[in-house]
Amino acid sequence: MNIIPLWFVPAVFVMGIYYAILRKLRILPVGIVLGFVSMFFLSGSLPFKLDVALAVLPYFAMGKFAKSFGILTRRVPVMMTIVSSALYAIAATFCDEVYLMEDYFGSSPSLYIFAAVFGIIAISGMAQLLERIEPLKRIFSLFGRRTLFVLGYHIAAGFLVYPIFDFLGDPIEIMERFWYVYWLINMAVVYLLIRLLPEPALTILSGSFLAKRKGNSPEYARGKSRKGKSTRSEYWS
């Protein structure tokens, strides 16, 4: 299950199962604690990303809880964005390499958690700032609507630009040295693919056609409208 870059699919799927079961049993806080603890004592790679799913469960649960308070729609102050970005950069400097795919969070998982929290705040603030720039807003909104396609094919898209670096010398060495150039070119290729490929092709390649059928069905729409809003306490119970 270590297929790059689709390892996150079983991880997210299993994490959703964890969340649903723990919430149904009203022991979600226990699962959150176990998720944080697992980052310190569990490493390796279990089948179907059972370990990774447990480690990322706390962030998903806290995100759901924050959404219930309306925090996700609030503006992040510019100063908070700057401070969070600085703290994230400092923490990332001292943090070892992290391999989330292998459930490895470096020699200091606590430092990773610190960096993750402030990184989330920093990214949220920067996203709100970028939202004011219309061209960038359109680009990132497009990527957001095509998340599965981007994550599923960004490495494959990289092979299209691989020959360019081959002309300049050792392509692997060049890509590692100038990773930011490679990343920009790679994202440009992904963007062009999304813009140029027909809608049916994108839907099939993303594997989202079943979700679209369900989401567009009248029965689903009626059922969704009948659902009541969850209270904040329900996210922790």
UniProtKB/TrEMBL annotation:
Residues 214-237 are annotated as: Disordered. Keywords: Membrane, Transmembrane, Transmembrane helix. The chain crosses the membrane at residues 6-22, 27-46, 52-72, 79-99, 111-130, 142-165, 177-194. The keyword Transmembrane helix applies. This is Acyltransferase 3 domain-containing protein. It comes from Mesotoga infera.
